[in-house]
């Protein structure tokens, strides 16, 4: 009597879908033959909500409701930070989710900010203003494409050291809005000047596609002595965000920019230490062979 061989799980069965983790998270992309469960659909629904928020920002900008337009993109950034964590908690990460998340990010943090800022300021400088808006949107798309291309690459010096490569797309959108934050609170027209705005947007575009190491929030490990103080500071910052949202957002973005040189110095130290360790290992191997 012949024994029937065990059937392997069919490769064509549907895989679990869900957004990728954030750029500073690690974890394999997994599959599941169980189909589209509610658990797997939840992270993607949040990603779709973030996309809707970003695109709604464009609608508010067309109507001239600048504050609502900016806040819609900020909301998209909050949702973008949530979906990856939920996907990781639910073990619902996949290539599908990575592609969906990147497409949503490209629209919410590339196209939407570019159009909002063009309508708010850059349209007074039609030719170069539009070029600056295009440069920002294209740089965001290129950054996301570079990230997707490196998902399966094992050797990533920045990520292995706890850093990111360039400024993340949501952060880039927040930085691009700094002139609006300051203009909305001070009323100074210099912050709405199309030449200033075009130069600023170009700088942020360069930072997004640069190869420089930038700090990753997930890699920060505060000392035990300051953790309670840090919790209190975060609570106060949240209260400030509710009471004075524009000043608070400006302060957060400026603090991020101020910490970029520190990140470069810190990464340089790690890189030199790794080079010394590799040189020591190589020297030991040569001595052992000799």
Q: What would you call the structural class?
A: mainly alpha
CATH topology group: Four Helix Bundle (Hemerythrin (Met), subunit A)
Number of strands: 2
CATH superfamily: CDP-alcohol phosphotransferase transmembrane (TM) domain
User: Main sheet, how many strands, which sense, barrel?
Assistant: 2 strands, antiparallel
Order of secondary-structure elements:
HHHHHEHHHEHH
> Which CATH C-level class is it?
Mainly Alpha
What share of residues is helical? 55-70%
Task: Explain how this protein is built.
One of its GO terms (molecular function) is phosphotransferase activity, for other substituted phosphate groups. Belongs to the CDP-alcohol phosphatidyltransferase class-I family. It is found in: Membrane. This is CDP-diacylglycerol---serine O-phosphatidyltransferase. Residues 227-261 form the CDP-alcohol phosphatidyltransferase C-terminal domain. By secondary structure, the chain is mainly α. It has a single domain (38-282), classed as CDP-alcohol phosphotransferase transmembrane (TM) domain (Four Helix Bundle (Hemerythrin (Met), subunit A), Up-down Bundle), CATH 1.20.120.1760. 68% of the residues lie in helices and 2% in strands. The chain has ten helices and two strands, in the order αααααβαααβαα. It has helices at 38-62, 66-89, 95-120, 126-149, 157-160, 169-176, 178-186, 194-209, 227-243, 245-289; strands at residues 163-165, 213-215. It has a two-stranded antiparallel sheet. It is globular.
């Amino acid at each position: 009597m012949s024994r029937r061989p065990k059937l392997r799980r069919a490769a064509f069965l549907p895989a679990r879908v869900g957004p990728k983790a954030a750029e500073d998270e690690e974890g394999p992309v997994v599959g599941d033959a169980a189909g589209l469960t509610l658990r797997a659909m939840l992270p993607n629904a949040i990603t779709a909500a973030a996309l809707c928020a970003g695109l709604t920002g464009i609608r508010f900008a067309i109507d001239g409701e600048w504050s609502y337009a900016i806040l819609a993109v900020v909301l998209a950034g909050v949702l973008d930070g949530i979906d990856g964590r939920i996907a990781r908690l639910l073990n619902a990460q996949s290539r599908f989710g990575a592609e969906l998340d990147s497409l949503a990010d490209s629209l919410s943090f590339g196209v939407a900010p570019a159009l909002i800022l063009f309508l708010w300021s850059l349209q007074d400088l039609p030719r170069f203003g539009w070029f600056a808006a295009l440069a920002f949107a294209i740089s965001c798309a290129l950054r996301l494409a570079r990230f997707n291309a490196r998902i399966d690459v094992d050797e990533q010096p920045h990520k292995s050291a706890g850093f990111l490569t360039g400024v993340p797309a949501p952060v880039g959108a927040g930085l691009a809005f700094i002139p609006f934050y300051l203009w909305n609170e001070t009323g100074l027209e210099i912050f709405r000047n199309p030449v200033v705005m075009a130069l600023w947007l170009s700088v942020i575009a360069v930072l997004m596609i640069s190869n420089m190491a930038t700090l990753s929030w997930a890699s920060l490990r505060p000392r035990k002595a300051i953790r309670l103080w840090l919790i209190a500071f975060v609570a106060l910052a949240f209260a400030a965000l509710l009471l004075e949202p524009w000043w608070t957002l400006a302060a957060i973005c400026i603090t991020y920019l101020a910490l970029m040189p520190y990140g470069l110095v810190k990464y340089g130290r790690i890189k030199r230490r790794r080079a010394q360790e590799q040189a020591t290992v190589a020297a030991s191997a040569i001595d052992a062979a000799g």
